[in-house]
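Homework-ish question, so no full write-ups if that breaks the rules, but can someone show me the predicted structure for this set?
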Amino acid sequence: MSAPTHTLPPLPYAYDALEPVISKQIMELHHMKHHQTYINNLNAALSAQVTATQSNDVPTLISLQQKIKFNGGGHINHSLFWKNLTPPGTPGNDLASAAPSLREAIVSRWGSHEAFVKAFGAELLGLQGSGWGWLVSKGGPKGRLDIVTTKDQDPVAATDVPIFGVDMWEHAYYLQYLNNKAGYVEGIWKIINWAEAEKRYTAGVENPLKLTKPSASLTETCRPMTPFAETPKSNCSANSNSISAYFSASRKKSEYEDKDETEEFDEIESGDDERDLSEAAELDTLLRGNRTAMVPPKAPKVAATKVSGIEQICGRTSVDRAFSNVRTVGPGWIKDPRAWFGDKNL
Amino acid sequence: MAALLSTSARVALRSGASASFKTGAAGLTFARGKATLPDLSYDYGALEPSISGKIMEIHHKNHHNTYVTNYNNAIEQLQEAQAQGDISAQIALKPAINFNGGGHLNHSLFWENLAPKSAGGGEPPSGSLGQAIDSTYGSLDEFKNKFNTALAGIQGSGWAWLVKDKQTGQIGIRTYANQDPVVGQYQPLLGVDAWEHAYYLQYQNRKAEYFKAIWEVINWKAVEKRF
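A: Not a homework solution, just the prediction itself:
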């Protein structure tokens, strides 16, 4: 048995598409660094869990639960968040036309759209420390609406449907708004994806997480996960498997030389790890190090791909998967992530 | 309302003669019964390159000041609730007092346990604290490693502290969520702010770099005094 490997879902829009509400720089760091680190740490925790399960190491299993909750929660929350945002001025941002039944439910619950916005904003600004604010449908689709906050990266209760969430970690707004978080909260309404919210309210949430087989073809990885994302013209190189094999081999070698993956992740919990190096830096490290007896097949210029957000993601995903490859042990995949998260809504 | 203000004024006068004075290890300042933002003993830019002047300025003038304002508001409401004998209102204020009072305490201690290099920042501890660190952790470097590991392990916002156990006199490293202050059994000696606002403008997601750089501006003399 091996642990499932999670990969970074592509954004359904370009990094600068949410400007001026959220800057390109924030989106890049938030998606490529913070979200990626939750995924890396989740994968490491799941791998460690498999090992601990096989050896009946109960103390380790217990100690892993909080890491899985925090990093799994970070992965779930961000995956939901990207999809519940849309560029300003897009049809999805118009509540009345994009979310008729949700709008009706909001008005019946809070009296008016404005009253809801005010109540939601007050909850967001009342958060102490890091966390999220959510509009949820209690007990399943078309349930009673409620505003809830979750601390750090706790996901919403498994029984509730997260209609949309707003990230109130400082990393979500600080580079642009500094201590003016009210400005961020005010702006977020210009980019809420009410079409996605309506879908979640009426039909529940699709699983935001996707498990990717290490041997999956590159085109499969590059396929957008959201119905409204454009299909990227894949400029990803076709030799992903050989790249995979190369990184797999060199990383395995490095694992003997260096400390193991688990130890590394143990030291950093949060979704921001300097060792979550950019792909360029990571490639650079690998290429410069004396561990590179092999020559990579046409070194992937991933970081240099600057065509669009989606294409960039394609590039990095292939490399990520090359790395995630070595984090898995042996064959076998958990097909249903709900088995891991016990959440029928996710 | 007038009665409340005079109560707080009396409290202030009992605690000291002047309208503005220092009290306790945290160096908290009050004016007419209200907590006030303490001045820094160095310029905003004096901790560069470890912490940028812009971070210091926003952190002190905006973030810390907001904790002070909100703490004073909460205390005013508390006094009102006390005057009315409203127990549930007093209990309901607890999170706001803990969060904003904690934010005020933590930052006040933090500014004091930092110093520019020119004023001794980064100079290793000596005397009994130095010995306690060596005997507990083996060496100052080993202590820093352990402290940085604790900082990196904080999930969400929070602080890491070198504390002294009041019962045993032993030192130890403890992390606290959000603005939870070091109170009760433990006495705060040295704190490092691991909130993103403490480093993000300069280090973004590379927080381990911030944790590494901050030792260059730790004021061990201030920590020794607390020990």
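Now go work out the reasoning yourself. Hint: The first strand of chain B starts at residue 20 and ends at 23.
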